Amino acid sequence: MRFSGALTALVTPFRHNVVDEDAFRVLIERQISEGIHGLVPCGTTGESATLSHEEHERVIEICIDQVKGRVPVLAGAGSNNTSEAVRLTCFAQKAGADGALLITPYYNKPTQEGLYRHYKAIAEAVDLPLVPYNVPGRTGCNLLPPTVSRLARDFPNIVGIKEATGDIPQCSRLLAACPKKFIVLSGDDLTALPLMALGGKGIISVTSNVTPGLVAEMCNALAAGDLQKAARLHLSLFALHDVMFAETNPIPAKTALALMGLISDEMRLPLCPMDEANKNKLIDVLHAQGMLD
């Protein structure tokens, strides 16, 4: 299965408001060396909303170049403008991505029929594997299981979904409605284990920016049928999952990586540095996890 296990929603490091290409390559190598199963550049965690079109394309190119086929690259290519999403997805295919992650159109608040037609337009423009991304808390719309099932059955290149509602009953309906080969990936670290226990195939993780090895190990345990080990790893990571969302993602993830000396502590407005009280909580958790000296 091309997209399964632990895939990291990569941060985009900046230095002096420019994409830090060297730091990004170091992050990618660290991910692969610790056993990650796939990488996702230019998603929400990658601050895609504040990247220029040129930066967006360059970040995808760097990731594909650095990975060199060792793990799948699922490139963020979504937009609330369907024609723009088509253009970005065509670029991802031309650049050599293994698939494209496509967020539901934000702000527009389309109907279910509008969502279907949005993904239909993209699916008909490329032959790249496509993974819609459902995160109503950010977009204001919810891609419901009947619509996902319709897309999965009508378009063979719509191969899965990143489901980030954190709503386990909706995830259950989704798994029941879609073909068995359809890939359901959790987009929520806090509820990834129960979704995978129900039949989900993995996680597009924020926490794995910080600790890719442990998130990958949890997914490996589930794939091997060792629910007890997976649950133990999930619980050991739970405090880190919690603090990764103490403020808007990717503020905590970037702060953690900066504390670990891997990137500069820089994000783009309207995101801003982490509140000191939350940063101290993050430091405590990182110490407890053995991530800081």
TrEMBL record:
Q: To which pathway does this protein belong?
A: Amino-acid biosynthesis; L-lysine biosynthesis via DAP pathway; (S)-tetrahydrodipicolinate from L-aspartate: step 3/4
Gene3D superfamilies in the record, alphabetically?
Aldolase class I
**A GO-annotated cellular component:** cytosol
**Compartments, record wording:** Cytoplasm
Keyword annotations from UniProtKB, A to Z: Amino-acid biosynthesis, Cytoplasm, Diaminopimelate biosynthesis, Lyase, Lysine biosynthesis, Schiff base
- In Gene Ontology terms, what is one molecular function of this protein? 4-hydroxy-tetrahydrodipicolinate synthase activity
List its EC numbers: 4.3.3.7
The UniProt record gives the binding positions of pyruvate as T45, I204
User: Amino-acid biosynthesis among the record's keywords?
Assistant: yes
What are the boundaries of the signal sequence? none
Gene Ontology BP annotations: diaminopimelate biosynthetic process; lysine biosynthetic process via diaminopimelate
Q: Which reaction does it catalyse?
A: L-aspartate 4-semialdehyde + pyruvate = (2S,4S)-4-hydroxy-2,3,4,5-tetrahydrodipicolinate + H2O + H(+)
* Family membership: Belongs to the DapA family.
Q: What is this protein called?
A: 4-hydroxy-tetrahydrodipicolinate synthase
Species annotation: Candidatus Desulfovibrio trichonymphae
What does the organism's lineage look like at the top? Bacteria, Pseudomonadati, Thermodesulfobacteriota, Desulfovibrionia, Desulfovibrionales
